[in-house]
Here is the input.
Amino acid sequence: MAVEEKVDLTDSHWEVVNFLREYYAEYQIAPAVRVLTKAIGKKLGPEKGNNKYLYELFPTAPPSRLVRSLACQADRCI
Here is the structure.
C-alpha cells in the first residue's frame, strides 16, 4: 500500500500501522475512524489522536481506507 500511495514509511507511520494491527488482532474488527482516533490518542498521546495527524502521515488515504487496508492480517483482510 505504501508503494501505491507513494509514502515512505517512517517510525510514526509504523506506530499507526502496528496500532491498527494490534487493535484488529484483539477485536477482530477495524475501528470506526472516530474510535480509531480516540484509541490512538489514549495509547500514543493526544497530539496523535486526531484526523489531522493521520492525514499528515497518509495524505492520499482517508483514515477509513487506511483502517481497512492496514487491518489486514496475513491473507485475511476486511
